[in-house]
Every structure is written in structure tokens, then in C-alpha cells.
Amino acid sequence: MTDITAKDRELIAVLSENARLPTAAIAKRLGLSRTTVQARIERLERAGVIAGYGVRLSEDYQRGLVRAHVLITLTAKALPKVTQALAGMEEVETLHSVSGSFDLIALLAAPSIGALDLVIDRIGALDGVEKTLSSIILSTRIAR
């Protein structure tokens, strides 16, 4: 969909902040009618721009988690198998293919350093993982 307007982008930003906000409240915030906002949401959903809605965890809950970036180097042709194994680990929040000396970067979240250590060990033991390099996240300076 290439005809996303500035108002559509504003609407997406409002929904990103709080997707449970009533349509009337969104309309007031954007200076549009409720029916216009509802029609825009439905159009964005039909076009696949809005693919779904999710849960945003509280800052208190998030602060209780220990996070790390794990850089992963793979053996030849191991990407599909390793990706599938990582997808089955609930602690893996995101997985990126990257260029450079590593093949993947995983963002992990666990309830403790000990739990995080176990997950990193499990990743390192996967068939097709040649090596890992982990960095624990101390704080987040910018999140958008």
C-alpha cells in the first residue's frame, strides 16, 4: 500500500502507543470523526499495513528482565535449522540476520542472570552454531 497519508501515520503512531484507546478518543486526538478513524483503521488492516495488535508490557515488568544481545556465527547451511530452534525458545524476543562476521543477532530476555546464562548455553550447544558473543544490556537509552 503506497497511499498512506500523514493522518494514517499519525493514526498508526496513536495505535502504537495504545491500541485499546477508544475510537472516539483517537478521533478527538487526530481531529477527525469517529467514523473516519474507524474507516481508516479498517482500510489499513485490509491493506495489511496493520497486521495485528499486541501487548505492551509495563516498564516495571520490563525492568525486572535481564536482556542481552547474542551475536551468533553459524556453520554452512545451518540457518534454517538454527532459526527454527531459536523460534522455539521463549526467551528469544527478536532474531536478525546481519552482515559482517556474525550471521545472526538475537535479543534475549530472561527473569535472571542465571536463566539468561542457561539460554545462552542452549544457543551455543545448538547444532550449526559455531560461536556466540553475548552482551548484557545495562540500560535502554532510546526506545521508539
Count of helices? 6
Helix content: 40-55%
Mean pLDDT: 94
Distance between the termini: 23 Å
Order of SSEs: HHHHEHEEHE
Radius of gyration: 20 Å
DSSP E strands, number: 4
Estimate the strand proportion: 15-25%
Low-confidence stretches: none
Largest sheet: 4 strands, antiparallel
- Class by helix and strand content? alpha+beta
Shape: elongated
- Order of strands across the main sheet: 2-3-1-4
Q: What's the arrangement of secondary structure elements?
A:
Elements: H1 6-17, H2 23-30, H3 34-46, H4 59-63, E1 66-74, H5 79-87, E2 92-97, E3 104-110, H6 113-124, E4 129-136
Antiparallel strand pairs: 1-3, 1-4, 2-3
Helix pairs in contact: 2-3
Keywords: DNA-binding, Transcription, Transcription regulation
Pfam family, one: HTH_AsnC-type
Protein name: AsnC family transcriptional regulator
Give a quick set of tags describing it:
single chain; 144 residues; alpha+beta; 4-stranded antiparallel beta sheet; 6 helices; 4 strands; elongated
Condensed summary:
This is AsnC family transcriptional regulator. This protein has 144 residues and is an alpha+beta fold.
Describe the structure.
It is built from six helices and four strands, in the order H-H-H-H-E-H-E-E-H-E. It is α+β, with helices and mostly antiparallel strands. A four-stranded antiparallel beta sheet has the order 2-3-1-4, covered by helices on one side. It is elongated and about 55 Å long. The relative contact order is 0.14. This is AsnC family transcriptional regulator. InterPro entries: AsnC-type_HTH_dom, Dimeric_a/b-barrel, Tscrpt_reg_AsnC-like, Tscrpt_reg_AsnC/Lrp_C, Tscrpt_reg_HTH_AsnC-type_CS, WH-like_DNA-bd_sf, WH_DNA-bd_sf. Keywords: DNA-binding, Transcription, Transcription regulation.
